[in-house]
Amino acid sequence: MVKDLWYAILSSNEVPKNKLVGVIRMGVKLAFWRDQSGQVNCIEDKCCHRGASLSSGKLVDNHVQCPFHGFIYDGSGKVKVIPANGKSQEPADTYRVTSYLVQEEQGLIFIWWSDQKEKVTPLEFFEDLKQDFYYSQFQRVWDTHFTRCIENQMDVVHVPFVHHNTIGKGNKTIVYGPKVKWENRKLTWYVMNVEDTGKNKAKSASEMPGEDYFSLQIIMPNIWQNIITEKLRVFAAFAPIDDEHTMIYLRYYQSFMKVWGIRHFILWAGAQFSKVILNQDHRVVMTQIPKYTYAKMGEKLIPGDRPIAEFRRKMEQLNKEKE
Length: 323
Ligand code: FES
Ligand SMILES: [Fe+2]
Prior knowledge:
The chain is built from four helices and 17 strands. The protein is of the alpha+beta class. The chain folds into two domains: 5-119, 3-layer Sandwich (Rieske Iron-sulfur Protein); 127-321, Naphthalene 1,2-dioxygenase Alpha Subunit, Chain A, domain 1 (Alpha-Beta Complex). The strands form three sheets. A seven-stranded antiparallel beta sheet has the order 11-17-16-15-14-13-12. It has a six-stranded antiparallel beta sheet with strand order 1-10-9-4-3-2, with no helix packed on it. It has a four-stranded antiparallel beta sheet with strand order 5-6-7-8, with no helix packed on it. The structure holds FE2/S2 (inorganic) cluster and fe (ii) ion (FE2). Fe (ii) ion (FE2) binds at residues 152, 158, 162-163, 281.
């Protein structure tokens, strides 16, 4: 997993107040809890003493107590008390576990995946989703790396095949573009799919006619949105569990209906439809090998795969910047 990036890894409602939560994310066992002010803490879920799971322990004030020999940890991962040594004896600084910076945004929990907290950069989110929208959310585990999951949502070529009887109806197999635009870590791509008449062919980004395209976006490394209209979006966060598993948090967003009952019905129906679409994707993505992607991995991409190529290139670039 590329370091020095904010990764969306949990939904805020998975870490309620007064609860210690143990999950695997980024291939590591992590423990989460909220302090009195509601701020989420995240430390490695493995006691530095003899390896017990801290998330099986308990919360004592704003701290976590290991269930085995009672070591007490603060949110920075430092051991504050070793009961067998006596409360009055301050433990040495070496008694600690790794902790991660945490930020919450729009009902998602992000961690700064890095060895260097001082290198932290501002968390980016889709600014347009911060206002006026309502959303419904569901989650799914996919047995593959998050790169395969997010690339599936960047894939504009698969739609008439995988979704031939839903969003890809009409056999529009030819891909115009896509045009791509980077703004810092946000990639936007514009695309149009048309039917193959036997006489037409794909157009490059510079030949694309008009202005009226579908656009989609990602913010590196793992959040995505499909801008169906100004007021209707599908959003997903692809939280890496480990190298072969990803938790997908999928949301259906709308801002055109504010009336309570109708609004809820639309959000519910949108989520049901999104489940159908995601299941269609799942069937194919589960067959892809290898289970993770990287630049120059040898796959024979085509012009329509431009967003995927951009994603791989950016991942490589971000990775290199760490070296
Ligand atoms: S293993 Fe945690 S206190 Fe001993
Ligand atoms: Fe799809």
